[in-house]
């Protein structure tokens, strides 16, 4: 799915932009920001995360706070996952949906340690849209406040099997070792709040660190001085893809619901939320397309937008993301296909220019993830 093109002089820059330039990163527009795509090579950065540790600038992501007497009721209404009974210090993944089941965004919800206060971390390309939509829903009568604090926060993702060891060695926060997957804690850095969150978008163990702009710049420099490999959005995409994680705009969109994307486990139908009835209808079988994984019997690279066909040549879908996997050394892709062709082991082909490459439907989690239990 193509992005709206923004003139270069109107692109935003994260607080770490000067650091990327100093490291001679290859820069490119992404989600309205000028972001680093790679520093060394995508393969070197990808393997650093899989084998050791790598670091990403994710300061372009959005931080929206919801607080007040009805904050829990409100967030539970706009979010597909169930936050009631969800304890402070926990993080949940889920979606916000339109009434027709289409996806507004996928996001993380943090239940803060302060009563009736939540942090919503949203995709960079959707910050303004999400904030406006959330405010529109709040206006239906919920007693809470919504604040877009994105310009005030920076964020770094430290990912890989050595992430915990590196974080404690460089910053000294031994609290990190006690965090389980999708848990967070608050610490102080230069007297200011720093959120340590055991989350990530790579399929490996790791942390996402949120704090002030000045602190993020300082922390980045400390990790660089310690020899941590900086990583760009190029390998962030190859890593999340291998781990079966969706990208908004590719595997989720206003036209692709959580059920179509195979993310129905993050929709809790025992409660009321926007889009519930439409998703229940799709869950019952009333949907025409599904996102699947496809493994190709060749080294050819299936790029987004390439047609997916039956062995007989009938076009039944389109590739949404595709690579020759760095970790697995296989050509694989996600594709949005007609439901009739979505079962595991269904033979399907990808047309790459004038040639057709055979393959079959496989599970979307291509790589065995290594999250901390």
Overview of the molecule:
This protein has 373 residues and is α+β, with helices and mostly antiparallel strands. The protein contains eight helices and 19 strands. The strands form four sheets. The protein has a six-stranded mixed sheet with strand order 10-11-12-9-3-13, sandwiched between helices. Strands 14-17-16-15-18-19 form a six-stranded antiparallel barrel. Strand 16 (315-324) and strand 17 (331-338) form a beta hairpin. The mean pLDDT is 96.
Short descriptors:
single chain, six-stranded antiparallel β-barrel, 19 strands
Strand and helix map with partners:
Blueprint: H1 17-22, E1 26-30, E2 33-38, H2 42-51, E3 54-57, E4 62-67, H3 71-78, E5 91-97, E6 103-111, E7 117-122, H4 127-138, E8 145-148, E9 153-159, H5 163-171, E10 184-189, E11 192-197, E12 206-212, H6 213-225, E13 229-231, H7 233-242, H8 276-283, E14 289-296, E15 307-309, E16 315-324, E17 331-338, E18 347-352, E19 355-362
Helix pairs in contact: 2-7
The whole-number mean of residue pLDDT values reads: 96
Range of helix content:
10-25%
Cα radius of gyration in angstroms:
21 Å
Which sheet architecture does the biggest sheet show?
6 strands, mixed
What percentage of the residues does DSSP assign to strands (E)?
A: 25-35%
Based on DSSP secondary structure assignment, what is the total number of beta strands? 19
Number of helices: 8
Q: Pairing-aware structural class of the strands and helices? A: alpha+beta
What oligomeric assembly is this protein in? Answer: single chain
The general outline is: globular
Question: Strand-and-helix sequence, N→C?
Answer: HEEHEEHEEEHEEHEEEHEHHEEEEEE
* Residue windows where pLDDT falls under 50 for at least 5 positions: none
* Distance, first to last CA: 34 Å
What spatial order of strands do you see in the largest sheet?
10-11-12-9-3-13
């Amino acid at each position: 799915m193509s992005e709206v093109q923004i003139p270069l002089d109107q692109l935003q820059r994260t607080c770490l932009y000067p650091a990327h330039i100093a490291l001679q990163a290859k820069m490119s527009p992404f989600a309205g920001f000028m972001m680093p795509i790679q520093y060394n090579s995508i393969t070197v950065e990808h393997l650093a995360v899989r084998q050791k540790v790598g670091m990403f600038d994710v300061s372009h992501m959005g931080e929206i706070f919801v607080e007040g007497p009805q904050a829990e009721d409100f967030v539970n209404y706009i979010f597909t996952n169930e936050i009631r009974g969800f304890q402070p210090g926990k993080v949940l993944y889920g979606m916000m949906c339109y009434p027709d089941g289409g996806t507004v965004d996928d996001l993380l919800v943090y239940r803060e340690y302060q009563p009736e206060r939540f942090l919503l971390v949203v995709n960079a390309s959707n910050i303004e849209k999400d904030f406006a939509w959330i405010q529109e829903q709040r206006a239906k009568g919920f007693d809470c406040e919504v604040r877009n604090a994105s310009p005030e926060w920076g964020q770094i993702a430290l990912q890989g099997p050595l992430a915990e060891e590196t974080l404690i060695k460089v910053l000294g926060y031994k609290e990190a070792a006690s965090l389980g997957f999708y848990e967070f804690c608050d610490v102080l850095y230069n007297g200011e709040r720093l959120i340590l969150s055991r989350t990530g978008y790579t399929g490996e163990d790791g942390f996402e660190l949120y704090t002030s702009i000045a602190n993020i710049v300082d922390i980045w420099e400390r990790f660089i001085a310690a020899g941590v490999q900086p990583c760009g959005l190029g390998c962030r995409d190859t890593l999340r893809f291998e781990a079966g994680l969706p990208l908004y705009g590719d595997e989720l969109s206003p036209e692709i619901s959580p059920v179509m994307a195979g993310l129905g486990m993050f929709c809790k139908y025992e409660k009321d939320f926007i889009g519930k009835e439409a998703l229940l209808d799709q869950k019952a079988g009333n949907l025409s397309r599904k996102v699947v994984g496809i493994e190709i019997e060749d080294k050819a690279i299936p790029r987004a937008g390439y047609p997916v066909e039956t062995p007989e040549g009938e076009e039944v879908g389109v590739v949404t993301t595709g690579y020759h996997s760095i970790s697995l050394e296989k050509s694989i892709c996600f594709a949005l296909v007609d439901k009739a062709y979505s079962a595991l082991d269904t033979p399907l082909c990808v047309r790459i220019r004038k040639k057709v490459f055979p393959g079959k439907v496989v599970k979307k989690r291509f790589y065995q993830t290594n999250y901390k239990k």
